[in-house]
C-alpha cells in the first residue's frame, strides 16, 4: 500500500512534551486523559455562579420557574442547542461567565498544566440541562474527540467548570478513560488517512466504538460537585451524558479551556479580538479554531428571536487579566 503511505498528510506533533513523571495530578491527566480538580472554586461561589446563570435564564420575561419542572420547556427558554448549550445573546461574555473563567483556582490549574501563566481562554458556552423534559428526550451518546487525526500528541486540554452536583443519575461528562493514549493507534489502524480532516472534531460510529471497547475501555460518568473542574485531553473519547429519569438536578456547567498565548498565530489573535468585540462565541479551543459561531439567535421556525441581544445584560469588568486572557492585549 505504498500509495496510501504517500498520501499520509503531515502530522502536527504535540504541544506539551510530557516528560516522564510530574509526581502529581498531571500524571493522571496525561495518562488517563482526564482529571477532576476538586474544589477549584469554593463551593459557595460555584453555587452563586449557578444562581447567576439561572437569573440570566429568567431574564427573558418567560414563566420559567427553576423550582417548577412543568415550566422547563423550550418556549420558556432562550434558544438552546441540541447539546443543551446556550451561546447566543452575548451570554458567553456575561459578567458571571467571565467571573467564573477568571477564578484563580481554574486559571492556576491550567497555568500548571502548560508551565506558563501567559494564557488565553476559550469563548465557550453555558450548558444548562434540565432533567426529564417532556419536550426534549435525552440525547443518545455522541462519542467524539475535539482534535483532528492530523494533530498528534496533546494540543488542547478542555475544561468544565462544574456548578451543580453530578451523581450517577445526573447529567455529567462521560468519557472512555485511557482513550487519548490509544488515539494514534485508532487513527493509524482503523481509519484511512485519506479520510482525515483538519477539523478538530470527529464523531465515532457504533462500529468504531466497538474497537475502543475491544481495547478494554469502558465508559465512565464523572462524579463532580459544584466548584470542581473537570479536565480532559481533547483526544479523549467523550460526550455529554444526559440525566436519567431518576435525576432531579439541573446540570449547570461552563466550558472553559486555556492555552498559552504564544501558541496562537497573529491571525487567530486578530479573530479572537474581533469575536470579543461582537460578544460572540468560538469553539472549545483557546488558541486555535477561532471561528465565530452564529451570533443571532433564530427560533425553530427560522425567524430571528425577538429577544435577540447584541450585548450581555451585565458586562464584565475589563480588568487587565481579562483582557490578557481574551487575547486583547499581550502579556
Ligand atoms: O457536556 C459535556 O459533558 C461534554 C461537552 C463536550 O463534548 C465538549 O465540551 O467538548
Ligand atoms: Fe467535546
Automatic annotation (TrEMBL):
InterPro entries in the record: Phytyl_CoA_dOase-like (IPR008775)
Gene3D superfamilies found in the cross-reference section: q2cbj1_9rhob like domain (2.60.120.620)
Highest taxon above the source species: Eukaryota
Annotated protein name in UniProt: Phytanoyl-CoA dioxygenase
Species, as recorded: Pestalotiopsis fici (strain W106-1 / CGMCC3.15140)
Amino acid at each position: 500500500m505504498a500509495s496510501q503511505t504517500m498520501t499520509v498528510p503531515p502530522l502536527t506533533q504535540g504541544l506539551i512534551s510530557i516528560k516522564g513523571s510530574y509526581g502529581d495530578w498531571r500524571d493522571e491527566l496525561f495518562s488517563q486523559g482526564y482529571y477532576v480538580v476538586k474544589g477549584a472554586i469554593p463551593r459557595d461561589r460555584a453555587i452563586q455562579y449557578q444562581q447567576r446563570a439561572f437569573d440570566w435564564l429568567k431574564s427573558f420575561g418567560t414563566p420559567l420557574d427553576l423550582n417548577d419542572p412543568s415550566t422547563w420547556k423550550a418556549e420558556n427558554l432562550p434558544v438552546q442547542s441540541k447539546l443543551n448549550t446556550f451561546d447566543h445573546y452575548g451570554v458567553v461574555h456575561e459578567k458571571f461567565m467571565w467571573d467564573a473563567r477568571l477564578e484563580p483556582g481554574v486559571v492556576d490549574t491550567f497555568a500548571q498544566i502548560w508551565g506558563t501563566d501567559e494564557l488565553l481562554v476559550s469563548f465557550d458556552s453555558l450548558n444548562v440541562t434540565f432533567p426529564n423534559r417532556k419536550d426534549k428526550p435525552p440525547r443518545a451518546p455522541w462519542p467524539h474527540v475535539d482534535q483532528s487525526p492530523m494533530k498528534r500528541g496533546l494540543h488542547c486540554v478542555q475544561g468544565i467548570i462544574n456548578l451543580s452536583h453530578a451523581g450517577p443519575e445526573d447529567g455529567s461528562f462521560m468519557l472512555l478513560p485511557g482513550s487519548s493514549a490509544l488515539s494514534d493507534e485508532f487513527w493509524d489502524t482503523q481509519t484511512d488517512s485519506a479520510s482525515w480532516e483538519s477539523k478538530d472534531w470527529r464523531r465515532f460510529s457504533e462500529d468504531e466504538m466497538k474497537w475502543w471497547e475491544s481495547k478494554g475501555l469502558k465508559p465512565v460518568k464523572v462524579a463532580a460537585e459544584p466548584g470542581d473542574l473537570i479536565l480532559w485531553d481533547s483526544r479523549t473519547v467523550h460526550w455529554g451524558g444526559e440525566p436519567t429519569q431518576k435525576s432531579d438536578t439541573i446540570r449547570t456547567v461552563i466550558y472553559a479551556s486555556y492555552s498559552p498565548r504564544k501558541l496562537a498565530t497573529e491571525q487567530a489573535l486578530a479573530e479572537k479580538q474581533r469575536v470579543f468585540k461582537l460578544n460572540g462565541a468560538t469553539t472549545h479551543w483557546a488558541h486555535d479554531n477561532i471561528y465565530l459561531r452564529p451570533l443571532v439567535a433564530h427560533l425553530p421556525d427560522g425567524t430571528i428571536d425577538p429577544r435577540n441581544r447584541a450585548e450581555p445584560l451585565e458586562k464584565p469588568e475589563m480588568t487587565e487579566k481579562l483582557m490578557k486572557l481574551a487575547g486583547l492585549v499581550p502579556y
